[in-house]
Specification:
Layout lengths: L1 H17 L34 E7 L3 H4 L10 E2 L5 E2 L5 E4 L5 E4 L3 E4 L5 H14 L7 E6 L3 E6 L5 E4 L7 H7 L7 E12 L2 E7 L18 E7 L3 H30 L1
Parallel strand pairs: 8-12
Antiparallel strand pairs: 1-4, 1-7, 2-3, 5-6, 8-9, 10-11, 10-12
Helix pairs in contact: 1-5
């Protein structure tokens, strides 16, 4: 009988231990080791989307030649000898629903789907081909790079990004880190790609997050942090399991005792 009780007790302890999670379940990048190199496999470049707000400026060695390509002349001044100096104010363009912008002199340009570098090169080539400027400099920056964080994060809402690149880990930090009930293995990034929406689910406990298409966020991404099962529910389930197990142990012990006596 003692052996039976000992066996049942061991099963009870092992079953309870199975409900306990490893510390690695709560650590970011838990599988990474010190002093080991991890190759950078992707160089992220966000693409221009419809409704993006862009800052575009054209400049060159002779500032007066760039004036027609900048809607507002800014602080340009003409000196006594006829030379134009000063600076040109930065311009903002909204990409319309067709993916176009209406650019001075060059007219309507389709830039949706292009990277910043590709769009800059296209505008530069159009200016050169039109014999307007021999060696123009075209600078483009995103002015509405935003993303939204929802779910088990400490600061839900829409956040802005300076520049054109932010990682998922940086976005989580900007949102005040994850809440205690966050499921680190099930973080969803919802992204619009052309005419479709895709959902990428990542596990930030693992280093292979660096290879995920969702590691670098794109503008207007939605990050949804799934919550774990509520603690109250886990506690209730455990108590139910414990009650049933103890009932089985008691019933088994009683049967054994009656059989032997």
């Amino acid at each position: 009988m003692k052996n039976v009780l000992k066996t049942l007790l061991c099963l009870l302890v092992l079953s309870g231990a199975g409900g306990c999670k490893s510390q690695k379940d709560y650590l970011y990048l838990a599988d990474m080791t010190d002093d080991q190199g991890y190759a950078i496999t992707q160089r992220f470049q966000p693409t221009i989307q419809r409704n993006d707000k862009l800052q575009i400026t054209v400049s060159c060695k002779n500032p007066e030649l760039a004036v027609p390509f900048n809607v507002t002349p800014g602080t340009l001044k003409v000196s006594e000898n006829g030379k134009v100096g000063g600076s040109v104010d930065e311009q903002f363009y909204r990409v319309d629903n067709e993916g176009d912008i209406n650019f001075p002199v060059l007219g309507k340009l389709y830039i949706a789907g292009l990277t910043i570098a590709e769009a800059s090169d296209m505008i530069r080539q159009r200016i050169i081909e039109g014999n307007y400027i021999k060696d123009p400099i075209v600078n483009i920056e995103f002015k509405n790079f935003r993303y939204t964080v929802l779910g088990a994060a400490n600061q839900n809402g829409t956040h802005s990004c300076d520049g054109d690149r932010i990682t998922l880990l940086e976005a989580i930090a900007q949102a005040g880190d994850l809440a205690n009930n966050a499921d680190l293995g099930k973080i969803a990034v919802i992204r619009e790609e052309g005419s479709t929406r895709k959902v990428y689910t990542v596990d930030i406990r693992r280093s292979d997050i660096f290879n995920s298409p969702a590691y670098y966020l794109a503008q207007n991404d939605i990050v949804y942090v799934r919550p774990k099962k509520p603690k109250s529910e886990e506690k209730t389930n455990f108590l139910q399991w414990l009650t049933v197990t103890l009932s089985i142990v008691t019933a088994t012990t009683s049967v054994i005792w009656v059989t032997k006596n």
